Amino acid sequence: MSAPSAQNKIILIADPRVVAIEIKENAEPIVDLINQNKIAYGPSPEIPNNTDYTKMRKTVYEKLLEAQALLPKGVSFCLYEGYRSLTLQQTLFTNRLQLVQSLHSDWSQDQIFVEATKMVSPVVNRDKSRNTPPHSTGAAIDIYLIDEAGKALDMGIHPKDWMLDEDGSVSLTDSPKISSAAQKNRKLMSDVLSQFGFVNYPTEYWHWSYGDRYWAYHKKQPFAIYGTLSEKVAH
């Protein structure tokens, strides 16, 4: 059995063409959403002590505010996760890798690795070179839409439930498996974020970034402007 052929046109986050892009860190400061009240955020994802998830680069925050202003009245963004340490990133990737392996024991290690990267960026690439996961740079944000009461709109699947989507088919931005309401809400979010230069990772409707390698690749920029933040800086 071979790996699924669907969505072959998607450039994955650890694609050699993405990983090869140079990073010229611009030393832009980070913004912590706990110090503002314009962008909502939910509880800490994955593990209770993930205390830095509300952080992102300053430009990312400013552009997110601009995009939110275009949403219909009564609808706003809610952050699920921004900055993520390399330590947590490695844990999430290992967990996803093990899940894929358990589901597809007949696949090769290369196939399993590639499949895992559809949902989590690796810290170390398959060839053992170091990767720069978008969340570790402060460039990436996982977001969804909420109403005036803070209740999540129908997005097909909540970001917190991503591990339950074993084959990743519901998380796909253009998933045909979700309701028409969810499709409409995803399109609304995509339309406003795209206007301000954000790039979506098509295997995860909630994942958007600005300034990282994935953004640079899709925007045909000569280099990324955000590199991995040291955990000391992030704190």
What does this structure look like?
- By secondary structure, the chain is an alpha/beta fold.
- It has a single domain, classed as 2-Layer Sandwich (Muramoyl-pentapeptide Carboxypeptidase, domain 2).
- Helices cover 29% and strands 13% of the residues.
- A 5-stranded mixed β-sheet has the order 3-5-6-8-7. A two-stranded parallel sheet has the order 1-9.
- The chain is globular, with a radius of gyration of 17 Å.
Task: Calculate the mean pLDDT score and round it.
Answer: 92
What is the strand tally? 9
Strand order of the largest sheet: 3-5-6-8-7
Helix content: 25-40%
Q: What fraction strand?
A: 5-15%
How would you classify the helix and strand content by structural class? alpha/beta
Named CATH architecture:
2-Layer Sandwich
Cα-to-Cα separation, first versus last residue: 45 Å
What is the total number of structural domains? 1
Relevant terms:
alpha/beta, 5-stranded mixed beta sheet, disordered N terminus, 235 residues
Summarize the structure in short:
With 235 residues, the chain is of the alpha/beta class.
Give the topology:
Layout lengths: L15 H4 L2 E2 L6 E3 L7 E2 L13 E3 H11 L7 E6 L4 H18 L5 H9 L22 E7 L33 H15 L4 E2 L6 E3 L3 H6 L4 E2 L6 H4 L1
Parallel strand pairs: 1-9, 3-5
Antiparallel strand pairs: 2-4, 5-6, 6-8, 7-8
Helix pairs in contact: 3-4
